[in-house]
Structure formats: structure tokens, C-alpha cells
Amino acid sequence: MEEQKAEVAKLKEVLFEATREAGKIIHTYFQGTFKVENKEGVNNLVTEVDKLSETRIIEIIKKYFPEHSIISEEIGELKKDSAYQWIIDPIDGTVNFAHSIPICCVSIAVKYGDDLLLGTVYNPMMNELFFAEKGMGATLNGMPIAVSKKTNFQKACLVTGFPYKWAYDTQHPIKVFERFILEGLPVRRLGSAAIDLCWVACGRFDGFWEYNLNAWDLAAGYLIVQEAGGRITNFEGDPYDVFDKETLATNGLIHEEMLSLIRKQI
To answer: Which CATH class is domain 153-263?
Structure first.
């Protein structure tokens, strides 16, 4: 037991070091000059700062845990013979970052087998560091957070995002978005799924849904929502996996009503 506690303590120490070092890089370059390139799709951007942030995070992880596996947005998977896996988004909200919009962050999670153990989401421009440890709750800048207590769906404040490209059909994300708008609900789009999840976790939003996200967008925020008392599933209402492509996160009290609108057939 003591050995396990020491291992988790070391993981936390390295996680915070990597998160803060990446945050310094992001903050230093914000509103500065840097190279911007395109990945798949015209607006799917990557900047040299994403790569600098990612390189520094991986350097720190490898220094202390060279035997651990890593999956990261820009380099992909670095597989090792280890039950531990670090899931990294060096900048979530790259388009915002590239346009000097201060809603972007570094997101890092630590997974052991099938279990998410630790997660951080850090927006250095707003100086907000969200953290969760499995079974120990979630915090914002060291203070405990919890999801909202709102039960009246008609008064909910929601957030979503859209894929850059999507084949048109009746379940197109815009059609689903329209259903919420026609209910008269306020829906925001911030451009960073990791921040969306954290803002559900701390009660600023009551619910979030999005299609076609990746594990690095979600892993840390997923744990933070869970540890803040929220509920996160796929669009069938099944228990969530960070590799799912449909994400619904809520305070738990409006979850079924959001599922009903998302799944409504026209």
C-alpha cells in the first residue's frame, strides 16, 4: 500500500511538472509569432508551439518514466511494455491559440490499464489549473469543485463543438444543435473540448456534447467531470470510454433529457 501511494505521488509530481512547463511555453508564445501549418482539412491547424509543448512534456515523462507508453496528438503512439499510458494534448484549442483567443489549454492524463488515475487541464492565460485523481475528487487551483445542481433542463446552460467536416444526414451535428436551440436553450461553443468538460465539472455549464473527438481531447477532462460528481456517457447512454467518438457530459441531473434530444429521430 505504501509503495502504491509513493508511486501515485511520483506520478502526480511529474504530471504537474509537465503540465506547468507546457503551460509556460504556451503562455510565452501566446499573441506572439510562430509557424502555423495545416493537417487534414483547411482549418485543422498545428503550430510550432504545439510541437514545442509536446516535446517538453514527453521529455519530462521520459526522464522519470522511460518505460511508460505515451499517446499524444502530434506524434501519435509511443508504445512500451507497460500498463501505464500518458495521454497528451499539447494544446487543446489550437485554432483559438493561433488566433490569440485565450480559450486553450494543455491536457494530460495518466492511465493504468483500463483506469484513468490522474488528469490535468491547464489554461495558463486564465491561470486555471484543473486536476483530478481517481477516487479523490477534482479541484481548480487546489480548491474542490463540483458540477451544478440544476435540475430544470429548460434553464440549463450548455456547450458543444463541431467537427470540421461531416457527411450530411439527419443526425448531422448541426441538426442536433438546432434541436437544443429550438428549445430556447443557451448553447456556447468555446473551441476546446478539454475546457468545455472542466467548465461542466466546476458548474459553469450544465452539459456538454460533441462528436468525433479523440482520447487526447477528452481523457483528463473526463476524469475531472467524473470526480466532480458529473456523468459522462456515449450517445446511447452507455458507460464512456476515452476512445469513444460520441461524448455527453452533464451534471447528471439533466443527462436523460439531453440524451433524448440528441437521439431524437426526425
So the answer is: alpha beta
For residue 242, pLDDT beyond 70: yes
Cα–Cα separations (whole angstroms), residue 15 to 43, 86, 109, 132: 30, 9, 8, 11
Helix (H) or strand (E) holding 117: strand 115-123
Cα-trace Rg, the chain: 18
Find the mean pLDDT for residues 49-72. Answer: 96
Q: Measure the CA–CA gap between 29 and 12, rounded to whole angstroms.
A: 26
Instruction: Give the pLDDT confidence score for residue 168 in this predicted structure.
Output: 64
- The segment(s) of the chain belonging to CATH 3.40.190.80 are 153-263
- Angstrom CA distances, 51 to 12, 26, 48, 88, 153, stand at 23, 11, 5, 12, 41
Confidence class for position 3, pLDDT limits 50, 70, 90: confident
Q: Which of 213, 236, 232 is nearest to 222 (CA)?
A: 232
Cell of 263: 437521439
